[in-house]
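TICKET: design request
STATUS: open
ATTACHED STRUCTURE:
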């Protein structure tokens, strides 16, 4: 998978935006990925501390990893609205950018 920095640089050069979408449930995650695949663009999936508590941080990261591999597009995870170092480290260990 391409590094986020490369995707951001390429998006800037093409005057394109890189979408960031929050995921509260599996339906939203599948819809985000389906739209990204249809349009052929990378995407950022954001999950707040509360959403990561609901999903399970490692579980969400594993699910996104599988979907990334199945669809062949860059999908990045953002630990959105993280309020503690402990939660930031947990997200980083799980594979969030």
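STATUS: resolved
RESOLUTION: sequence designed for all positions
ATTACHED SEQUENCE:
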């Amino acid at each position: 998978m391409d590094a986020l920095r490369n995707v951001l640089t390429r998006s800037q050069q093409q005057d394109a935006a890189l979408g960031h979408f929050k995921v509260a449930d599996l339906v939203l995650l599948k819809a985000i990925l389906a739209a990204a695949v249809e349009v052929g663009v990378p995407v950022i999936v954001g999950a707040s501390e509360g959403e990561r508590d609901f999903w399970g941080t490692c579980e969400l990261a594993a699910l996104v990893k599988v979907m990334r591999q199945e669809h062949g597009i860059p999908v990045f995870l953002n630990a959105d609205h993280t309020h503690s170092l402990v939660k930031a480290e947990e997200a980083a260990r799980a594979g969030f950018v």
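CLOSING REMARK: The chain has one domain: 21-94. The beta strands are 20-22, 43-47, 75-79.
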